[in-house]
């Protein structure tokens, strides 16, 4: 009677329940039920594992009732031609004759689930075999579905709802998806945090494994990936890759060390992660639950130089020096490399940290065993070490040498075509011609002569001016020439010197008396006209005394127009002198 009642359970409700519980489709559940019923019936009732058996399963509905029905069929065949009783039946069989079937027709026997379950010899075997097979297929399908769903979320941050919490074991059951519940174990929690049913929490998908029981999804809040995802979520520069998280060492609930560096020289990676007044770190630690003692986060500047990296990793302790030693490992007879860090006096406990937390996290972050000594103790023991200033200077020099070598290698490896070389030569040629042309033009305008001789060390930056010849006629004074040594004066300095002399020349001209200049100009014009005329004999216009006076005035005018080396022309270098008054 119990079996009959079980058969009356709505199949549709049972299928819907499985769909909701296992995240499987209704079509998959129905197909799995039919295939499992067919295989179990063939095995238990026909005594065969042959999948070619003519067995079909149908879900028949009559009104509100529904049931699975199994049909087993055999081909009708002549008695003397039957070769397999499993697939064939004689035309002389009473049931065949009653059904009115002929050779070649299909004879089917109809079995209801009630008939099968109530079979005294095979009913129980059928139920047990069917249940085991169907449950196995559903678990396999569930496992495959969950793995497919969460393998893309591996290492990602997801939000779940606490559905159960055991205060004794501190284990929490978290719903991370539709009808997908996962246990958050005590070791995967942060410190001594507790949870409430219905509370929303963030977890990280640490791993997705498959076992006989199905898919095993491992979630965690203590995993370093959890902290990394929080950094990406709260700090935009970490999310977009401007600031990169190199390593994370974490003791959940106590302390974490996060090593960062920046791809942008204008961005301070540590300051960016900490934020103004520590607001960004504060936003991250808000996700650390309700532990009594909040987990501390040290943001460490990553460096390619291991010694500098170790010094940064030991913050908040101040490392004054460091050396590397080799000693026999405690776990094996092999030699292991150990970093001996020398810290400021009085900071030994700070460097080691509570329960050795600081030094152990620094060792985990940098990947090397670290030992700590205070400064005075290291000196007393005669330990030879390099100061951090020396280490940093050597690192800068090494980086510079590496950059130069890389540049040379890159230059050697580059394949430059002949055309490119020719183009480069033309550019250089044109540049040289342009410079020569500019120098020639300036030389011509200012009457500058460039000498090829190499002067003495004292004369490298001097500009030499020839002395005024003694036998020069008064009518026409030769212009003074400046000699510049191009071998010892840079082109830029030469141009600046020439420009300055040109400005001084213009200043001298501006200083001359306008009236005297005009009088001289008129006189020169008159003398030019008189020079073209033939001398005419006649009465003298001026007496000898008057001519002597005119000659003296002319000499005074020439002197006023000349250059006095003692004059100060600095006032004419100012733009204010030339402004309209």
Explain this structure to me?
- It is a single chain.
- The chain is an alpha+beta fold and 581 residues long.
- It has a five-stranded antiparallel beta sheet with strand order 7-6-5-8-9. Strands 1, 2, 3 and 4 form a four-stranded mixed beta sheet that branches. Strands 15-14-13-16 form a four-stranded mixed beta sheet.
- A hairpin with a 3-residue loop joins β10 and β11.
- α7 packs across α10 and α11 packs antiparallel against α13.
- It is elongated and about 170 Å long.
- The N and C termini lie far apart (126 Å).
- The N terminus is likely disordered.
Give the averaged pLDDT, no decimals. Answer: 78
Termini, distance in Å? 126 Å
Helix share bin: 40-55%
The global form is: elongated
Biggest pleated sheet: 5 strands, antiparallel
Low-confidence stretches: 1-7, 446-489, 513-517, 531-541, 560-567
How much strand?
Answer: 15-25%
Content-based structural category: alpha+beta
Strand tally, please?
19
Task: Output the radius of gyration.
Answer: 51 Å
Main-sheet strand order equals: 7-6-5-8-9
How many DSSP H or I helices? 19
